[in-house]
Every structure is written in C-alpha cells, then in structure tokens.
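New to this. Explain these tokens.
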Amino acid sequence: MKPDHKAAMNYNLSEWALKNKGLILYFMLLLAIVGIVSYSKLAQSEDPPFTFKVMVIQTYWPGATAKEVSLQVTDRIEKELMSTGNYERIMAYSRPGESMVTFVAKDSLRSSQIPDVWYQVRKKVGDIKQQLPSGVQGPFFNDEFGDTFGNIYVLTGKDFDYAILKEYADRLQLQLQRVKDVGKVNLVGLQDQKIWIELSNTKATQLGIPVTEIQQVLQQQNAVASAGFFETGTDRIQMRVSGQLQSVDELKKMPLLVAGKTIQLGDVAEVYRGFSEPAQPRMRFMGENGIGIAVSMRKGGDILALGKNLETEFAQLQKSLPLGMQLKKVSDQPVAVKRSVNEFMKVLAEAVIIVLLVSFFSLGFRTGLVVAFSIPLVLAMTFAGMHLFDVGLHKISLGALILALGLLVDDAIIAIEMMAIKMEQGYSRLEAAGFTWKTTAFPMLTGTLITAAGFLPIATAASSTGEYTRSIFQVVTIALIVSWFAAVLFVPYLGDKLLPDFNHLPEKAPWHQRLWARLRKQPEPKPVLQHVGEQHDPYQTKFYQTFRGWVNTCITYRKTVIATTVGIFVLSVLMFKMVPQQFFPASNRAEILVDLKLEEGASLTSTENAVKKVEKFLSTKHGIDNYVAYVGTGSTRFYLPLDQQLPQASFAQFVVLASSLDDRDEIRQSLDQEIRKLLPDVRTRVSLLENGPPVGYPLQYRVSGEDLNLVRQWAHKVAAVIGDNPNTSNVHLDWGEPSKIIHLNIDQDRARQMGVSSLDLANFLNSSISGATINQYREKRELIEIRLRGDQAERVDVGSLSSLAVPTANGASVPLAQIAKIEYSFEDGLIWHRNRLPTITVRADIRSKLQPATVVGELAEKMEQLRAELPSGYLVEVGGTVEESARGQSSVNAGMPFFLAVVMTLLMIQLKSMSRAMIVLLTAPLGLIGVVLFLLLFNKPFGFVAMLGTIALSGMIMRNSLILIDQIEQDIQAGQDPWSAIIDATARRCRPIVLTALAAVLAMIPLSGSIFFGPMAVAIMGGLIVATLLTLFFLPALYAQCFKVRKNTESH
C-alpha cells in the first residue's frame, strides 16, 4: 500500500462518503431497517442444527441364540458395512433373536454427504439379504435420530379405557400437526392391543380340539373376500357375505365342530381383549401410565413462535377433553430457549453499555457518540448477514455475537480517533477523513481479516464438534467485515456530523473531569494552556512523555525484555498442565436424568417395579416440578445433545425437572446417594444434560479382542484399576452377565415314532407359552391381532412344563417329559461388537470435581502396564469424553496450516517483508501467558470453547502488532530515524490499541458468568490484557533487535 499512495488517493472511500452525504444517510437507514427485519426472521432454537451421523440396522431371527445371531447375522452385516469405508465406528449387539448394528458415519463428512452414505449402506446391506439364514426378518433401517421433540405432552386418564385414551391421543396428534412450524408429532409409550384366546392345554387334549382347527375356522370365517356383483340393465349391485367379526362377543360364539358336535369357542376357551404381553416400553408421568405426545419443530422454524402457537393450542385442547382425562406438559423447550435468549440479550445489553462507557470516557462525549451510533448499525448489518447465510439464533451464535461486540467497535474507534486527532491538528473534516483512509484503512482491513482468520480453524473443522461450533466463525466474520465497511463509510459521515470544531473551541478539560467538579460544586478545572500560536499536539501531554520514556527503556534493554518475555512464555506453557481440561461443560437446563439398569435378561415387570419404587421416593421430594419415567427404553430426544438410550427390557430412564438450577444441583446429589440405597442391586446413574455432541459416561475404556472370555477377564482387570482410583464411582462393564435359559434335549428316535419334529415342538411351545397369531380383528382404523395361547397356570409356572401334552401326527397327544429332557443352564444374553471384534466397555462416573482428562491422566501409567501384558490382537482404548475431545481437537488442528497460510499471506500483502511479517506472527502465541494466568486465577477449565477462544485470540493480537508495525514503517518512510520512529509510532498507536483491547476485554465481563462461554471469555480477557502490554513494550524491543536499530545521537 505505501509505495502506491497515488492509487489509494485516487480511490478514497471516506472522502467519497463525505461528498455524497445524502446517499450515505440513505444506506445507513436502509441497512438499519433490513437488519431489524432480518432479526425478526432469524430461526431461533436451543442448539445449533447438527447432523446425527448414525444409522441403525435391525434384523430379527426368531428362535436363535445371541451367539448364533452374532455369528450368522450381525457379523455378515458388519463385514459388508466395513466395505463402505465411510465409518467412524460400527457397533453392534446381538440378543436372542435380534441383531442391531449401529453405523456411525465418519466424523469428517459434511452434512450434505450423509444422505449418500445412507443410500450406500441400504444398497450394500440389501445386496447380502439373500445370504442371511432363512427365517430372518429384515433388515430394517432407521436413520432419523436428529429430530428433537422439544415439546412433550402426556395424556393421562385413570378411569378411561385405553382404547378411548388412544383415540383421543390420535385426535390430539392430528390437531397438533396443523399448528404452524410443527414438524413431526409422535405418540410415545403406545401399547399394542390384542385379543387373547386362552385355551388350557389339558382341556384341549381332553376334548380333542386341534389348535389348527381353530385357526382354520377363524380364517375361513373372518376373511375379506369378494363375492362378486350383479350387472343388471340399470345398476351394478355388489354382493356381501356375513361372518366377519364385529365384536369380541361374536368371536366367543364362533362354532367349532368337535367329534361331530358343534360347540362355541367361548365354552372351552377364555376370550378377552387385552394388550401385548410382555408389555411394550411405556411412559409414566408422575406415577401413572400415560400416552406421550412429542412435538418437533420443522427445520429452520422459530422455536419461540412455535412455543406461542403450541401454548394457545394446548389451552384449547385441554378444554376439549372429557372430565377426568388430562393433558399435561412434560418438557417445554421454548421456555428454556426463551430463558437462554433473554440471558444472552441481557449480557449483550450489558456488553454494549460497557463498550459505550469505554468510548465515552476515553474519546470524549461527542467522539464517543460516533462509536455509540456505529454499534447498532454494525449489529443490524450483522443480523442481515446472518439471515443471508442462514445462521439462526441459538446458544452458540448468541455467544459469538457478544464475542464479536468487543471486536466490531475496534475499527470504528481506530478510525474516529485518527480523524479527531487530525482535526485537532488543524485539518478540515474532509482532509481528516481522507487522511484516516490513507493511513489506517488498509492496515485496518488486513487486521480485521486476520482477526476473522483467527476463527478459521473452527470453520474448517470437519467433525461434529466443529459443526456444533461453526456459527462462532460465521457470526464473528460477518460482524468484523461489516464493521470495516462501517468504519470507512459511515464513521466519517457520523464524525462529520457529530465531532466538534476543534479549532474554534476554547480548550476545555475532559468532560468527565468537568462533571466531577460540578458534582462537588467546585470551579471548572482549567485545561493545560498552550502558548499562543503553537500548533496543538495531543501527543505532548505528561502521560505520553512518561510512556515514551518507558518504551525508550525497553528498546535500550531489549535483550533483557525479550529474554524475560520468552522466559515467562515458557513458564506459562509448563503451567498449562495445571489448568483442568474439559470437553464441553454440563448444560444449564433444569432436567436431571436418572438411569436404572437391571441385570441383562431381567423382565419388564421387574424393571417397572423398580421404577415404581423410585416414583414413590420422588413424590416426597421438594423442588421438583415434574418427573416422567420411560420403562424399557430411554427418553425421547427432547434436547438435541441427549445421549439417547436404546429400548431394552432391563432399562428405565427418568427425566426429573427441577424447579430451579439451585434445586437441580441439590436434588442431583441427594438422589445419587438415596436411589442407591433404595435399589442396591440395580445399577443407577444420576446425571445432568450435556452440551455439545453426546458422549455418555465421562470415563470409558474399551477392551476388545477375538475371544469373548479373554476379553471379559481383561475387562474385569481394567475395571479393578479404575475402581482403585479414589475419584471414580459407579464402575461397571456395559455387558457380560449371562442369562438363564431352559434347554429341551429331545430324544429324536422317540419323537420320530410319535410323529413329532423339533419344529412342531417349538411351534407348539411358542403358541402355548407366548401365543401364536392366528388372525386379525378389524376395528375402525385399528388392526388388532387375535392370538391363541395356553392358560395362566401353564404360562407362568415353569414346573408345569414337563406335563404339557404335545399333539402328535396321529391326533393323540404325549406328555413333553416323554420325548424331551428338560435342562436349566446359562448363555450369553447380549454380545457387543465394535468394528467386528467382541468389545466390552468399562464405564465410570467421576466422583470429585475433577475433569475426565485429569482422571485419565492419573490412570495412564497403570493402563500402560496392563497393555504391556495383553496378548497380541487385544486392545484397551480410551473412549468417552477424552476420545471425543481429542477428535474435536484434531479436526481443529487440521485447519491450523490453512489458518497460518492465510494470516501469513495477509501480513505479506500489507507489510511486503518476510522479516516484519514473522515479527507479527511471533507475537501470536504470547497471549497464552494471559490465558493460563487467568484460567488458573478464576479456576476455569480449558475446554473446547476456550481452545477456540485462544486460537481466535492470536488473530486479535496479530491485528494490534500489524497496525503498530505498519505505523513504524510509515514513519520511517516519511524520513524519521528508526529509533524515534519506533517510539513515536508506539506512542501514537498506544491509545487506539489500549482502547480496542479495553473494549474487547470489558465486553467479555458479562459473558464470563456463562456456563458455556465463561472459560472462553476469561481466556480472551487474560490473553488480551497481557498481549496489549506486550504489543506496547515487547514488540518495539523485538523490532529494534531484529533490525539492529541504533540510537541516533543527532536526533536527541
């Protein structure tokens, strides 16, 4: 820029702005209006939209053991999935009769590439469908995991029949679906209705009723078949045949032909309407069963608007229900979002006030007004940019706005400060604006771009963590770029209108000194008098002379200054190990999750009993708004980063809503201890909601290898090591307990003679114990299965198994004990694989206030010893928070070379010298001194967000260094000797550098209280304070050392 002064002169935006004032005013008003309209249109949600790269493939193989499913079904599907190559990990479990493979797509894939991956998975698994064993049902695919059902309601009615309750739920579902901005409406905890025909085995044998007979008769009578139609001269007349079941009573009266006589089905069997047994996963609200209605928002909707619409609809729906049926609210995301948006808006307002105070006090009232006017303007332009790039308002972008606030006034402060000083020195308004453009516009633009480039690694991070935090980059970059345009176009216009005429003003003391004097009723303080005719120089005040002396000292003893700084920097790098590390902090939502896990193979009934005990206990606790239990499954995703649990009979999850955050922490601690006492044999876990991508247990170690038994032994050893650490609690293996089975050893010779095959026996037992489907009953829009099974005594009493009469080929029957020997034993009820290897995860919570990374560090040495003893091919890997954090970190690190290249290029364009660009680059890491100091002082953990803040900080530091070095260069070019050029340039840039840093640091104060952004704010505050001091004292010394600047004796 410097050699080419003419080009810059010819194209002077600031002068142009002052020559076209009307146009500039129009643009300012237009942009303000566009900004306000954009703000009202921004999508509002709790979390940034983020893709769940998970697909689940379920396959059923009735009758197979977990081991058979694992070898024959799961392994084949896993093998095929591995050939896609696009996986982060493939986790699979096999249970008796069921296989479930979870395909987690590569973290580095962008959201737009995911649908194609899902297509590949469906295609590849579809190709091997023929190779799966006969009798396999499926595979079935599910990739809709990211839907957040922010509003959950529950419909309860103790005295109502389930069918009526279900009908009302259907009706509500339809009405909610019509509400504006609603995406999906799901019903949760539904029970399938069944019609049961219970026929005692002994009775059927005595009367000689073959089971197949009932099935046949039902099918023939209840079928929907066309009876044709008459085509007459005038009409077409349809024929209809009766016999289809209209009610359960008709089924009872259905005639059977037995030994030449007809008898009614109701005479020999119990026929009634019920539900599937064992029950399906259900939802309980405040201790009673209910039907959940979960509502999600359509993509890009406004959650607050949706909240309002649902609120009015909810009130309407409640009125429309019959007496005794109640619709209650379980989870209300709009309220949580409103709270966090209000909190951020309050912080934003505080930050704006702080920045205004800084500018008023330091620049004087009228100069400060220019900055005050530029803030809403830049914010309005930022909102317009956010709307353009489809960035909504959520907790990440709101935090980024506050972060940007401290930076977006920098350009305005630098520009107006230069303009005011030039006017004080006697320039006209137009000349002052023109001079400001010439000297600061381009260094300022480069500086702005460098600050924005500090956020580049977030933009390029290809991981779910990167995707979650990407809007920090988008918002800050938009704000910074528009703030530069505001500084060169609108600030000169505002300055022209608002700055006083310095030449004709009698010199007064600063306004705050005058105000203070007036408040104390003292005479107005006198300004420093200038000699008549002397050009007023703002840089000759007492403060600047002292400051020059300090800079002079630093340059004289530059080696000491440089050595001290480097020494402190090295010390801070060593001290960094003492700062606690974390991934993302816990959320500030008021919900508490309580997980109950009974032993593998436990029945749903026993899970429900455990749930009822906890419910009874919760009903006595104070400070709880409501609690909801999901029996046999995890909670619906009511919060985007929820670690969702899969359905399993032995699992239940509570979501307890505390009245306030203080109550939440108190309840969490008491629950943790008391539920353990209440259910000593159940694995319980009490946790808070997470921020950032879901992780689950903070401590996880995976043990994997070929042989299951060996893996189990090593997993127990790993668990012992973790259990020995005093900071861990709730240490357990995620699976490994065997399940009970009854083994029927059939005497094949005898069975052949009787005409009974293994298949016949299996079908007979299945029908008499679990029930076999024989037909369907059609009622309105419901299809209800009709199932035939043995009576209560035969189904529940394992002892009566041996006396069951098995029908034979010739129509007679034989007791089971005659053809089969009954044995009791155990087998694996669940087998987990990860990337095709049997894998057991040892999981634990952390008892103390320590961060997971710290505990993993404590365990590292013992784990290494264990690994040394492992047989080859067996692995012990760290999972959980530490693994996720490392993955997020490495995706950010991958963007660092690009970031350095962009910064170096910008510096080279501006400074046109490698050595000068390197000096600026070298100041970047020095912010770490302040970061470490402040994080330790305020005891804040260094998390993912704080790391992003530290990278961004380096951009802010380089901006200041760049502007200073550019000023030194301009002075030397103007003919000053280097020694005094360094001192004068530092003195001249001192105020804008300190002011911009002060604005950024003070704007962070309100944000430092936030759970999520607190560590980032503290890191930036510390880093900027230290870095500003270094820019003013260390940088001149470094510059002098690099260019061997000698003191010019003539100039002094």
Remarks:
- The longest helix spans residues 464-498.
- The first strand starts at residue 54 and ends at 60.
- The two ends are 31 Å apart (CA to CA).
